[in-house]
## 1
Amino acid sequence: MKNKRGFTWMLCIVLMFSVILTACSGNNGGTNAPSNAAEATDPPATTDNQPAPEENKEPVTLKLISWSDSYTELYKKFNEKYPWITIEQVPVNSQPIMEIIASLEAAGTPADLTWIDSDLITFDQAGLVEDLTPYIDKDPTFQDVQLPEGFFDTMTYKEKRLAVPFVDVPMWILVNKDLLAKHGVEMPANDWTYDDFREVAKKITDPEAGEYGLTTQPEFQMRVLSTKAIADGHAANIHYMNEDLTQSLLNTPDVMNDVRWLSDFVWKDGSMQSNAKAAETGDVTREFINGKTGFAIGGDWVLPGLKKDAKFEWDVLPFPRGKVSQPGYSIYGPLSLLSGSKHKEEAFLWISFQFSKEAQKWKIDQGANASVIDPELTAYYDETPMWEGKNKEAVKIAKENAKIQPGVTVPAWSEYNWNNILNEIIFDGADINRLIPETEKWNKRTLEVRESLK
């Protein structure tokens, strides 16, 4: 363990010196300031998240590393509540976040907060993120809200809360209602089944018109397929993981049959085009917005474009019902407080602010889920302009039934090659039996890494 930690710190040092050398050879002349990542800082001892109006505070600018520039309005709301604190987004621009952290540390302007782009274990091993437990335990907002059971489970490692879900991104089945109507098919009910899903997809497929049941998009195997495995009782967690997230079940007979089921949409039913067929027809069926497909997978990120540019009537449905349950699919965006921050107290206020009703309602307005359990927030789904005229009950079902995407605290998760292999099997016709040795290899690897981390 000692050697592993030493290696990780060496990696961070190499990254920092790499940044410095690059800066010196270019037009940046930053100096190498020592990191305070190892310094312990007591959590804020405030008793009220709302400061007294007469208090004079020194201005603070928090650097937040993120890959989205769509939160400017939320930054402004936070600044209105805490006028002395300004959020400055540090864009990722396809650069690994650990490199950005090292770069800012080397320049003497360390970041305060970060979204996480890989597994949290690596960040923890490098000493880059704070344990949020003492902050949360003393924070008035967290003490006053009700959170779902197991809310922190996917972001807790060795009893340390290394991140909080910054945003709860739900998934739905997007529906082209005009295409359904053209083929005489009614909008399915919210309790529809996977059999219904397949049958409707076949009914609305018309190759002569260039119309297909499903959009040719990897999200069908990334989201629906692994959720179906849960719905039919073949796996306990998303991405075919077992109950305690220690092993993949992707090579089991039942799950492999689930893979065959989705492959049949392409190679038997013809209701979803393969990659090759999609390319032959100009890739029109790769985008739901084109109006040539009946179903697609969507999350909050697609809503602005649909509301603005769709030339057809669209709506949403929850993921279908299986033999034992009707789970949905949700992604938590991990938000961490960096150990190198010089403004930990103020940075945690931003974390805490995410769970205020004001911030929660703003996120609902963007199409995300409310993380806090509260009747007022549940009622707000009926009030938000985002879902006006749409299937609001489906949105609520997707929230209530959501299974959370795992991974950030699963050892060797980045080496789990399920996504690429399934894309090749389903959309390119690759041999399904590749799943057996690949899954066995990863199952062995994740146990080895788990053991090394003890």
## 2
Amino acid sequence: MAPALDWSAYANYGQGDAYAGIPARGGHYARAVAVCIGNRQCQRSAGKGVMCPSFRLTGEAQHSTRGRVEALKAVLNGEGADIDFDDPQLAAAMDLCLGCKGCKKECPNGVDMALLRTEYLAQRAKKHGLAPRERLFAHGTRWLERWPWLGTLIRLRNRLPLAAALGERWLGVARARALPEPARIPFAAPLPAEATAERPPVALLVDSFTRHFEPDNARAAIEVLSAAGYAVQVLEPATGDATPQRSLCCGRSLLSAGLVEEARAEARRLVAALAPAIAAGTPVVGLEPSCLYMLRDEYHSLGLGADVDKLARLAFLFEEFVAREHAAGRFRLAFGPLEGEKVLVHGHCHQKAYGGMKPLKKALALIPQLDLEIVEAGCCGMAGSFGHEAEHHALSLQMAEAELLPALRAAPDATVVADGFSCRQQIHDGAARRAVHAAVLMRRAMP
């Protein structure tokens, strides 16, 4: 097996008695699989937490982290010269993995099923390529940048039932789900503010989804940080970039489809653009949880060099940066009250997995007289492209109906905050509510 990802971090796993059953083949990848020792916390059907959304919905063991590990072990221990990643039982087990990262936090051993699944997808993509639907979701934002007229086609598809029906028949994109419509004008970086002793620099990562679909989230973040005294510098391609006309991208959509080499190429572009910030110790602030946390996590598995360790220490979600700076006495922007306004906050799965909910609550608590409540819900069920896939659309909404959507209906007049792009889509489709990014709410409370 020639792994697509770097699994060397697991080289010493399995040395002690706590680990058992390392598969016969797969090298360090097999050791990462064997991190699971059958604790079965992933097979809980109640209680707080995210892990494991598909098991909570179906109650079937194969749709838990443990069930997927057993399927992986079966193929890694199989006979024959090649590892059979086409095994139908493995495909069935992986089908409902949402890549939520809940297992990495909530499993006592920290099994990273999302990353294990990425290797599985990469091995299959290497052998079979991608279906048109997978290519659409993997390259969608890149295509929008190259061919802006695609936005008109998306809007037509959403308004013409026949077009949506044909999309479901030909591509497998759920006709009942509206595709996200790109903004008429994508985000354009303002002139960079000059850094001074009073205005320390901040590097802002504007991800592809924010850039093309919700550019006002980036503008809100820039306004809040600028008002607080920071010189915001929007990241642009580095000098010498082979494709300087193309916006930077973390590579999340590509990695989620198993296109590891393409994701690695995008990650290298981003790390090159960040080289001055890394060298200077400048904080890197992001808006989309799944993109920002990729800099802290998956970049270690892409073999990008020593700068990734430094970058991981400098990367913050917007509200993480605000909470940290406020605690250090450097963020002094005084917000006006949103007196008596009820705010429900839904956390993205990756926010919950990486401990991002407490900073989010602390940042929003800077707004006086805010009636703030964190919604105790697991995965919203959208999970990137998952909720758009015809065979998964109904399951996606069932996941949202488990906890999230009833909580929103119980507070019909509340403002809803959700930092995840997919989460905001699910809330819009399932509850007919428009959720906002934390930066947008904080801008509204500015003097």
## 3
Amino acid sequence: MRDLSEIVKAYDIRGVVDEQLDADVVREIGAAFTRLVGGPAVVVGHDMRDSSPGLAAAFAEGITGQGVNVISIGLASTDLLYFASGTLELPGAMFTASHNPAQYNGIKLCRSGAAPVGQDSGLSEIQELVSHGVPEFLGAKGTVSERDMAADYARFLRDLVDLREIRPLKVVVDAGNGMAGHTVPTVFEGLPVELVPMYFELDGTFPNHEANPLDPANLVDLQAKVREVGADAGLAFDGDADRCFVVDENADPVAPSAITALVAARELAKEPGATVIHNLITSHAVPEIVAERGGKPVRTRVGHSFIKQTMAETGAIFGGEHSAHYYFRDFWKADSGMLAALHVLAALGGQAGPLSGLMAEYSRYAASGEINSTVDDQAGRMRAVAETYRDRPGSRIDELDGLTVELSDGSWFNLRPSNTEPLLRLNVEAPDATAVAALRDEVLAVVRG
């Protein structure tokens, strides 16, 4: 009897290789996944970590042992795996631990058409099946075939966002030794873009810096290179290349909320009146701009399962999160950092001004970024903060996801507990930096006691 409770997360499976995740465990997960989704075949891809090819092969054995075929697409970004699942109309599995350190690996699973498999949509059933032992299949085994889908993926993205007529751009891309080093050259081939590559060598030990652009320390090399070569923009991808961060020509980071607003405006220009999803931590500029452009903004909880579910329910054309996950209806409602990057370059190259000037329209407020506090009593600290603001004149409180408080001067904050650590996460937005600092310090004084 296997216990997968330590490695089954909200949206994927992830753990330390050999200690928590090995070939035997993965083989059983593959068999259980096959029992869950059925179908004639499963698409399997993997990232550049040393452990990934072996784990992907063991997973394939679990699938074929259940009489189902495997289509191996080999080295892939997560959104390339989603593309394969969508175009082939097959369930899929991507072996990656995203931005986690080298000793980790994991599996992102999806049903046919890149539909997500999370804790409430299949992972719990897989965990249960493995814990009791997956029934043996007595029929003929499935087969494994290989298929390279990178060129098809690149063509598909370039058809969604046409960059052929943009002005020439110089763009620095930091792949962080992750999968963008594999996909960017193919996607950018033939575009009017002078590509300045950084850390494109696939290396799952991440020798230059962590492949986590959410941490400002991991943007330093990109920022220096943008200044050095006089680039129009810089792009930084995480390890499995499903998230993309942007810096402008001055090497200043562009907030993911501003990217969300920009892409939303571009999509609404194609489909006026459409719905756009944003999670509750994105800037208030996002719903404002969506409404101004004639769209319908819809607010959701944080997390891709909520975004994708709401997109399906509303037929939304696009969705964005503060964490630089961007979801596209025309990409099977899946997230693609590459597709968001192409939108930014198309917008930049379609006008004469610099990226900083272009993004000024979409960057209306000051923000704190996410601030973590270690606390012993998450619920107690949350209650204390709620009581502090409940009776303040003009304040509004909602609890869609954690605690969101909006104040009469236009400032607001969200405080959310971590699901996996004794942390409270605070995000503050206000009309200017001074107001952000004041509200941040006021809330943290209550949170940290």
## 4
Amino acid sequence: MNTSYDVKFWDIRRNASSKTPSYVVRWKVSGREKSKTLRTKALAESFLSDLRQAAKRGEGFDLATGLPTSMVKIKAAVTWFAFALAYIDMKWPHAAAKTRDSLTDALATVTPALVNDDATDAPDPLVLREALRQYALPPACRELSQPEDIRRALSWLDRHSLHVSDLAKVRNVRLGLDALTLRLDGGAAAATTIARKRSVFYNALQYAVDLEELPANPIDKVKAWKPPKVREVVDRRVVVNPKQARELLTAVTYVGRLTRGRHLRAFFACLYFGGLRPAEALGLRKQDCHLPETGWGRLVLVKSKPQANKKWTNSGQAHDDRGLKHRAQDEGRPVPIPPELVAILRDHIEEFGVHDDGRLFRTSRGGVISIGTYCDTWKAARALALPPEQVVSPLAARPYDLRHAAVSLWLNAGVAAPDVAERAGHGVDVLLKVYAKCIDGGADIANQRIDHALNS
């Protein structure tokens, strides 16, 4: 394969020669112009992004097809199993740890279902899943020594996997969709799990379409299969009021041995008074904080510390060091904070100091606090602060619900939606959709207007 690193990209343009909307991705490899037409602008942007990412990784581009070597490898895959491995190889380098987890989770679910009708003597489903998740799908794990049952399971899958072209048939793609709806124990999977895995499956099939291995995404042809509806709005029952939030923050200080609870009080306060995501609070550094002696302060969030399995991170650590969600790398987000949070953070720094890198919240050895640690602390604090009937309710059941309470409070205080979205790191459309049921007063206003119309 003759390759070149001399690649140039142009902006996407509307296909003027077609009556139905379509969009053209154009690029040049060693002076040779290449193009691909896709049905929607979103698909075109995704395809162009994959090309740019490949160039950024230093991949050579095939002179004949104009595609980067990773895409050529995917085109050469005959079976779905081989395609899934090549697809993971293409996605892996620029995917976040949690995205890698989701990719392997979904593909480990659908791949065992996409086999020939005459496939007999199937391995135990638990063994097949372990073989895919722990040995085959993560690129770095493929060279590991494989136990005999793992080796046999992957060999069986390699022999019986459907051809990619077979997935053009609706009955075959339904095998994968049906597999998404079940847990390993045969019970029904959660709606959010099904939706997440279906998205990965759909995108992988769409990539086969982009590479012209399938004529169209077969999932679009499946009419009788409907994914369950996923709750996309915050349940207002989880939202605490300011009095309850303060009682919970006080209760946190009584949890755990030595100073563990007191150390985490400021962490939880950042979620409630600042609307931070937990991973953003874990990445908060002293140099990110403007904490005046009086009045409002400001945080400029830059880093995030999301937690994932060590297998999925580049560093081999449980927490990745990443930029902010929905932001470009190193793009900060300013968050004004009220005097109450300013005072809490000043007290925290005075009592506990900061890590060598400036982080405010860390373990006794300087590590990143785990999800399990702060969730256990929060659970204990709820039991101390809330009456029994509220302990068993959804009220602030998770630390993340403090962020929901913060955003709901801002909206109900009359803060303009664009300002709330900027502070919370949301888009305005997503903000209003997610928090629609947490905004008070809307029903009363609507009732007054209807009553006025009926009686005028």
